[in-house]
Specification:
single chain; 286 residues; alpha+beta; four-stranded antiparallel sheet; 8% strand
Length: 286
Amino acid sequence: MARPTRPWWRPGPAAGRAAPALWLLTAAWIAGGVALWAGLSAKPWLVARRPVLLLEAFLGTGATVPQVVSFKQAVEGQPWCCEARYVDADEARREAGQDDRIRPLLDAYGANPFLRSFRVKLCLPSMESWHEAADWMKNQPGIVSVRAPSATAPKVLEHELLLLALIRGAAWGLGGFAALTALFALGSLAGNLRGELRVYAELGASGPRRLLRAVWALAAPSALIAAAVATSLELVCVLGRLGGVWTAGPLGALPDVPHTAGAALLGVALGLPALVGLFAAGVRRP
C-alpha cells in the first residue's frame, strides 16, 4: 500500500496564479545579486584600475655600493613596494635625450648632470601610502631627494572615493528596490497560499504544521531562484573572461562575483520568506 503524501511538503503554493509572482521574485533576486556584486566588488575594481605610480629616490654622489645594496634590499621589503629598479646616470641621460626639447641643453652642457636613482613602483592597493613611502625613502642613508607623485596620487584617490560612493549608493538603491520587489512577490505568493492554509486548519492541522507549510512553500522556490541567480552570475563572469569580453578596458579589471555575495543573497532569500511565512500562517494573530 502506497504511503500517503504530505501536501505541506509541496515546494510552493498550489494555485496556478503563482507564476507571475515567481517571475517577479526572479527579477528581484537578479537585481539583488547585481547589487551585492557591485557593492562588494566596487573597491577591488577601482583599485585594479589605478594607474601605476612611481617614486624616484635619487642617490647622492657620495653614496657607496653597500648603501646602494642596503637600500635596494630595504625598499623591496616594504609592503608598498612592488618593484625597485636601479637606474644609473648614463641611462637617465639617454632617457632625457629622447626629448627634443632637452637634447640641445644636454649637448651644450657636455657633462652628465643626472644622479643615480631607484625607481620604486607602488603596489596598487598601497597607493594611499605614497606619502609615507616618500618620507621613508628620504630618511635612508645615501638618498638626497625623492620625487613623488604629489599631484597625481591625490587626484586619483579623490576621484576613486567619488566613484566608490556613487557605485555603493546605486548598489544600496538597487538592493532596496530588490528587497521591496521580493516582499511584494512573496506577499502575492502568501496570498495564494492563504486558502490552502485555511483548508489545513479546517482539517485539524496544528499551528506549527501550518507554519512549516507556509515557510517551506515560500522559502523553497525563493532559495532555488536565488541559488540559480548566484550561479548564473558566476557563470557570466567565467564565460565573459573565456570569451575575451572582460580582458580589456574598464571591464578587464572587473572582479568575479564574490562568494560572499552569493551567500548573502541566499541568506536574504531564506530570511524574507520565513518572515512572510510567519504572517501567512497567522502566528501574529491573537
